[in-house]
Design a protein that fits this description.
The complex is a heterodimer.
Chain A: H1 2-37, H2 42-46, E1 49-50, E2 55-56, H3 59-90, H4 95-109, H5 112-126, H6 133-157, H7 161-169, H8 174-203, H9 231-240, H10 245-282
Helix pairs in contact in A: 1-10, 3-6, 3-8, 4-6, 5-6, 6-8, 7-8, 8-10, 9-10
Chain B: H1 2-42, E1 54-59, H2 69-76, E2 94-97, H3 98-104, H4 117-127, E3 131-136, E4 146-148, H5 156-161, E5 165-166, E6 174-175, H6 178-209, H7 212-227, H8 230-248, H9 257-281, H10 285-293, H11 298-309, H12 311-327, H13 330-335, H14 353-360, H15 369-397
Parallel strand pairs in B: 2-3
Antiparallel strand pairs in B: 1-3, 1-4, 5-6
The chains are: A mainly alpha, B mainly alpha.
Chain lengths: 283, 404
């Protein structure tokens, strides 16, 4: 009987814990969604902020984040995929590959503020890009690089060796094998990795603090050497250093909701694309 | 036919070189980041202790040749007022700053671009044996009765063991990282103490007790929560947690180490839950069944068989959780109040390493000691997280099951 009692108590505790934690996490989401939904409308998404960030919208921040995300992935995605192809398909199992892998793993765990530090001193100061989209994109790209390499490596690893052997046995070259057999098979997972890193890059604040982000700009950036506003930094300044913090609260809720929506969309998109590509392949 | 083959082979080789090249670039970039951080940071120990561009001068007859940073600070804070207290002759210390020169000499006496200023300053110092002048190097006083105090470089022990972080203090900035390191560890460890039991409980619930339907609903939501930007969590902490903690604990301010820990715990929960849940679910079915077949209850099976089997996976989750907590910047910066003092209680404002970098880098002049000190903080973070990620790797590779 005793055994049963302790099981009952333990399970009750776990169920309660589960409910409590899930409630806490849901209430955070709910809190931001409820407060943010009231603010978001077309005007909020398409106008410049006005009157000390208390009215208007967040259009320039959305555009800035879009530019930064595209810029960083333009640089990180090809480099990451190619590096992963090299380490997985071409390089042997020598110490060079092992070292690169160890380093990418470590780099993936380096805090984002350290990337900001590096990006500021190298791109902004040493290479003289100034606070610019270029410096910010490169910094964010470095941050995304280890993530992309890792997911691509995993994706390539998941392709069975028999595929490669079969292709080579049919007389295909290595390049043909990779481009016609390995890559298509690995594509759903590679794309998933790409989309998830979009979610990550678009929400990072620390790396852009000193490389690109502007408190307020009356115009959109017109070139890669221009500063830009960005959503996460915009939320940070709205929350902590606006001229009238209480009056700009609604703007902050709206910005937070937009950020959450981006992550949500990216997650859903990743799932959707993976399912679709997998279905197509199985046909 | 032959031609096609050759083209194909060339294409093949080019691709191989291209891929090798990008692999090399990535490798080099990573090495470069590391070297770069450490060289910038290490340059701090080649900087003088006195504020950049300034020097301390005394009368040539003064027996004092050098002052430690602590002594200098006490003198300028008027805690030491007599040369006798630091081993000199009896006499009140007279502090002289560059601004004082302008009240002694009218501007027209100093010549064009203050060309005569060094000479005048030399004369001034010569008149008074008890003077301690803090002057910019560009106007270094000239004269035979002037002596510049020997300025040491910043010592690693002052940096790593120093208890005061006052990077912009004059005449001697203090770069002691102890308050920041302790603040970071305090916030992260308390966060983990809160998050671990909760996370583990939820992981056990999800993997062992929840129905398939509940699991399929909750798992994606928890993964989504892991992806929400930290600045959003920070904002939530600022508008909800800070006032709540201030009110419920009757504190003068709600921005405390505890607030940071609580927020970090909430942020770490999704990661801990999903890693630990994966580890628990990896326990082979045969082991569970064997335990149940011997008459153990489901609960006994969980805590005697499943949890011990998943121990290394769970430890990896813990270590990863610490790693993320230590490096977290924005959320912590927004709710901990950022007072750079030695932490005495968790209901006090603290400042973490990442928050310090984020808050001060914008104001630190590039290449100066403050800037270098912040880079060295980056190195400390880098080393912390590297140790953590290596130990997580070792732990998760360790053999799971030891036969008794």
């Amino acid at each position: 009987m005793n055994k049963k009692h302790s099981q009952f108590v333990a399970f009750l505790i776990f169920k309660l814990l589960g409910i409590i934690v899930v409630l806490i996490l849901f209430s955070i989401l709910g809190f931001i969604i409820i407060n943010g939904v009231r603010v978001i409308n077309w005007e909020f998404l398409s106008k410049f902020p006005g009157e000390g960030m208390t009215t208007g919208g967040i259009f320039p921040a959305i555009v800035g984040t879009l530019y930064l995300t595209i810029g960083s992935l333009l640089f990180a995605f090809p480099l990451g995929v190619m590096s992963a192809l090299y380490t997985q398909e071409y390089a042997g199992k020598g110490w060079i590959v092992k070292t690169i892998r160890m380093m990418t793993n470590n780099l993936a765990s380096v805090p984002s503020i350290v990337f900001g530090l590096f990006g500021m001193s190298l791109f902004v100061n040493k290479l003289n890009f100034g606070d610019s989209l270029l410096a910010g994109s490169l910094t964010l790209g470095l941050l995304a690089l280890p993530v992309i390499i890792r997911t691509t490596e995993e994706a390539l690893k998941a392709v069975p060796d028999t595929y490669r052997a079969a292709s080579l046995a049919l007389g295909a070259t290595k390049l043909q094998t990779i481009s016609k057999v390995v890559l298509p098979a690995a594509m759903p997972n590679i794309i998933t990795g790409l989309i998830l890193s979009i979610g990550r890059v678009s929400g990072e604040t620390a790396p852009i603090l000193f490389t690109v982000a502007a408190y307020f700009l009356p115009h959109l950036p017109s070139g890669v050497f221009d500063q830009a506003m960005a959503l996460p930094y915009h939320l940070y300044v709205l929350a902590t250093s606006g001229t009238d913090i209480e009056a700009s609260r609604p703007m902050a809720y709206g910005t937070a909701l937009v950020l959450i929506l981006i992550v949500l969309t990216m997650n859903l998109l990743a799932t959707f694309i993976r399912r679709k590509l997998e279905k197509k392949r199985s046909k | 036919m032959q031609k096609k083959k050759i083209i194909r082979r060339i294409l093949d080789k080019t691709t191989e070189y291209l891929l090798t090249f990008s692999g090399a670039i990535t490798g080099i970039a990573i090495v470069f980041i590391t070297i770069f951080l450490f060289t910038e940071g290490a340059a701090l120990f080649k900087s003088p202790e006195v504020e950049q561009g300034y020097e301390l001068y005394v009368h040539a007859q003064n027996p004092i040749n050098t002052l430690s940073p602590a002594e200098t600070k006490k003198i300028f804070d008027s805690e030491i007022t007599n040369w006798k207290d630091i081993g000199g002759k009896d006499g009140e210390i007279k502090i002289f700053r560059i601004d004082d020169a302008f009240s002694v000499y009218p501007e027209d006496e100093l010549g064009e671009n203050y060309a005569l200023l060094p000479q005048k300053l030399g004369e001034l110092i010569a008149q008074d044996e008890n003077i301690l002048a803090f002057l910019p190097k560009q106007y270094a006083p000239i004269g035979s009765s002037v002596k510049a105090l020997v300025s040491h470089n910043i010592q690693p022990s002052d940096y790593f063991l120093g208890k005061e972080w006052m990077p912009t203090a004059t005449p001697v900035p203090f770069f002691g990282v102890m308050p920041l390191v302790l603040g970071t560890l305090l916030v992260s460890i308390v966060a983990l103490i809160i998050a671990l039991p909760l996370g583990l409980g939820v992981a056990i619930y999800l993997s062992e007790l929840a129905s398939e339907k509940q699991r399929r609903l909750l798992k994606p939501v928890i993964e989504l929560l892991a992806g929400i930007p930290s600045v959003v969590y920070g904002f939530f902490g600022l508008v909800v947690l800070v006032p709540a903690i201030q009110k419920s604990l009757h504190l003068p301010v709600g921005e405390t180490a505890f607030t940071g820990s609580l927020l970090l715990a909430i942020m770490a929960l999704p990661t801990i839950i999903s890693v630990a849940e994966d580890a628990l679910r990896n326990t082979p079915r045969a082991m569970r069944e064997a335990s149940l077949a011997m008459g153990a209850t489901q609960w006994q099976t969980i805590y005697r068989v499943v949890v011990p089997y998943a121990k290394s996976g769970i430890s990896a989750a813990v270590v990863l959780g610490i790693g993320r907590a230590i490096g977290e910047t924005m959320a912590v910066m927004m709710v901990t109040g950022n007072a750079a003092v030695m932490p005495h209680s968790i209901f006090q404002s603290v400042r973490t390493i990442p928050a310090t970098i984020a808050a001060e880098l914008g104001e630190a002049p590039a290449g100066g000691p403050h800037y270098q000190a912040l880079f060295l903080l980056g190195c400390i973070l880098f080393v912390f997280t590297m140790i953590i990620s290596i130990s997580a790797e070792i732990i998760s590779k360790k053999k799971n099951y030891k036969p008794h």
